[in-house]
TrEMBL record:
SUPFAM superfamilies linked to this entry: P-loop containing nucleoside triphosphate hydrolases
Top-level taxon: Bacteria
Protein name: ABC transporter related protein
Keywords of the record: ATP-binding, Nucleotide-binding, Transport
ABC transporter domain sequence ranges: 1-223
Molecular function GO terms recorded: ATP binding; ATP hydrolysis activity
Transport as UniProt keyword: yes
Alphabetized Pfam families for the sequence: ABC_tran
Amino acid sequence: MWKSYPGFTLRDVNLSLKRGTVTALLGRNGAGKTTLIKCALGVIPRDRGSVRFQGVEREYGEVAWRRSVGYVAESHPLYDWMRVEQFLRFIAAHYPTWDDAYCQQLLERFRLDPHKQIRELSHGMRVGLALIAALAHRPILLLLDEPMAGLDPIARADFLQWLREDAIAPEAGRAVLISSHILEDVVAVADEIVIIRHGEVVVHASLGDLEREWRILSVASWTSAQQWSAFPVIRGRDGSVRLLCRRQESEGLVAELTARGIAVLDVRAPTLHELFLGLA
């Protein structure tokens, strides 16, 4: 799939999401995460390529396709003048599969008063309402764009618990794509990791596979490593220096660094944070 704007191109993105799995979409600001999600959903038209769902190609703006998807936008656009129950009735009218009983369960789960005006809701409550609107029609695909942004640690923990117990429960049979900058939360729920950089997907694998495929080399000299290395260099606030390389390259890199007088302190599997810093 391709999508271009002045100064930016989402290029040649190939991505497959599996039912019953959570895929985390990671990247720096402006990397193309939201553009990818909106193209996949059909909110904005793609320039080239296709979106296929259950083997059928979906067209831009197709109503039947969007009814199969739940989407929570980063900005949580809601109608502040409505009451919670009014808003949900309005949303329900657009989805033939809306489940009133499930909606009520979610209201109780997120502790939302259906009679309260939306403008009176806290940020965490607004996130909860957006999630209810995205889930009560029981979508097969759930797209979450920075859903935990601005939530306090308790609200984030509550959200992650709900995500594990409900949204991605095996019986739901749902594929979930979640974009987030909160990497420790991603580790808690994601089955697969996608890293996008400058509009291109550079990594798509399980976290376990990434830990097996990549290596971190901690080295003693920042200046020498920075000037010589063709590998991503990660500098810590404490002055530490780490190089990121593929596992099959690590022995050769250690030998090359040692020959150049650069001491290698240790070699180990990377954390997701280090993978993000090195690849995003």
